[in-house]
Design brief:
Length: 470
């Protein structure tokens, strides 16, 4: 394991405030604390918490899993499962998959029965997404804004607990990245673009408690906006952030509020202003939007580190900070090597990234932070690849956070295909999941199922732990 930095050691457990000297700033290409000691952030992202991507949490069903459930309820489970296995998985249930699975069903039952099952399936559109908007819209339609927010608050209290944070600290990590969407921090209808921001105090109370616990445990937190008003990417639909002054103003308001609340919190290592701003039409548009946010935060007298993401355009496209008068900034990207299928492939890819990134960093003279990375395949070569990634980051003193801390492999996928993945540092569900059905469970049942997530046994993926733990 990598040595755990003295600067990040746990404080006196009776001291509930962040220890003096912990506040971080940039010094050339290094992140340092108030005594000038270098600090490399090493941690995990709290995926699925305040930006609820349900492919992480196994809340509700992808299309093939919903069809599996409907087949069981209709008493034709084995035939339906055979058809699903033959057609393959589908998260959304696109037209090609529906045609393929209908053909497979028709070979195993009469066409009328097949069509009836698919008609039932159409009544429950899949909400599996890289955004939380579809999930939130279903909850709002059924239970209203207040009911939606109360249910999500219940889930948030169960998905990330004090015990989770203690586990992270006990395994040598010093940082949690906290992905958040503006929708979770506010309490408005999600059926139309926002015209104002109404703060969700229950969500801020959750965040406050998390930061208090981080301070107790000696952890840093990176506050990370996954979706700003207007959307910096197109996960929730077409992005309007870069062209709509109203959405830009609301995004500035969002970060002004976050700065107002957290400018004195030393356990906040950095603000990650816009995660994956890939829909910016140009690098200049990306940087101009960042500049609005940077200037607003600095106008609050807030000197926190500010994370600027390249939007997958390349680290070399990020500007000389002096161009905008930026200070105390960290440049970042996310690394997901979808096309790599061997340990050797990871070695080659990391060697190339190391060369390109280090050249750009020398010119920019800012710290680098790999805010999100993962290998996906549950195989020895992939874990070797994860170790190679971390070793590369460490050799350059780049900070990093793994995506993601906790993830549930879909129980239907496990049953039908024996699927296991390397997505979650803790990703091995033990026992049964009382799976929340957002379309059919009543409010009390959903609340009970969400609350029960606190008691789920999701064991570590030990191979991944060994590959990346400090």
């Amino acid at each position: 394991m990598l040595p755990f930095l003295l600067a990040c050691a746990s404080p006196d457990p009776d001291d509930t405030a962040a220890p003096s000297g912990r506040r971080l700033h940039a010094e050339g290409t290094a992140i340092v604390d108030e005594s000038g000691q270098p600090v490399v952030l090493r941690g995990v992202a709290l995926g699925g918490w305040m930006f609820h991507e349900n492919w992480i949490t196994a809340v509700d069903y992808p299309a093939h899993a919903r069809l599996h459930v409907l087949g069981q309820e209709a008493g034709v489970g084995p035939a339906v499962d055979e058809a699903i296995i033959a057609a393959g998985p589908s998260e959304k249930g696109d037209a090609d998959w529906l045609a393929a699975v209908r053909a497979e069903l028709a070979e195993r039952m009469d066409e009328a029965a097949a069509d009836a099952l698919l008609a039932q399936l159409a009544a429950y559109p899949s909400i599996v997404d890289d955004s939380d908007l579809a999930l939130r819209l279903v909850l709002e339609a059924r239970f209203g804004v207040a009911g939606r927010d109360a249910l999500l608050d219940t889930f948030q209290g169960a998905w990330v607990t004090d015990a989770d944070l203690a586990w992270i600290a006990d395994h040598g990590f010093n940082t949690v990245r906290v992905p958040m969407g503006y929708r979770d921090l506010t309490s408005m209808s999600d059926t139309a673009p926002p015209t104002e921001l109404v703060w969700n105090e229950a969500a801020f109370a959750r965040l406050d408690h998390l930061l208090d616990t981080c301070a107790d445990l000696g952890l840093y937190a990176v506050l990370d906006i996954q979706e700003a008003p207007g959307g910096q990417n197109e996960y929730a639909g077409p992005s309007t952030l870069y062209t709509d002054p109203a959405m830009q103003a609301l995004s500035v308001e969002l970060w002004t509020e976050l700065s107002r609340r957290y400018h004195d919190r030393a356990e906040v290592a950095a603000y990650s202003l816009l995660a994956e701003p890939m829909s910016a039409p140009t690098a200049d548009a990306r940087d101009a939007m960042y500049d609005q946010l940077v200037q607003a935060i600095r106008a609050e007298g807030d000197d926190h580190l500010l994370v600027i993401h390249d939007g997958f355009r390349g680290m070399y496209t990020l500007p000389d900070p002096a161009t905008y008068g930026w200070t105390n900034v960290v440049y970042s990207t996310h690394l997901f090597e979808w096309d790599v299928d061997s340990a050797e492939g990871y070695t080659e890819r990391m060697a190339l990234d190391q060369q390109l990134f280090s050249t750009a960093q020398t010119e920019q003279q800012v710290p680098y932070y790999i805010g999100s990375f993962a290998t996906f395949v549950d195989a020895d070569w992939a874990y070797t690849g994860a170790a190679t990634m971390v070793s590369t980051f460490e050799s350059e003193a780049w900070s990093w956070t793994l995506w993601t801390y906790k993830r549930i492999d879909d129980p239907v996928d496990v049953a039908l295909w024996g699927t296991s993945t390397a997505w979650g540092l803790r990703g091995r569900l033990q026992g049964e999941l009382a799976r929340p059905d957002l379309y059919r469970d009543d409010e009390a049942t959903l609340a009970a199922k969400f609350s029960a997530y606190a008691d789920l046994s999701i064991e570590p993926n030990e191979a991944l732990v060994q590959a990346v733990a400090p």
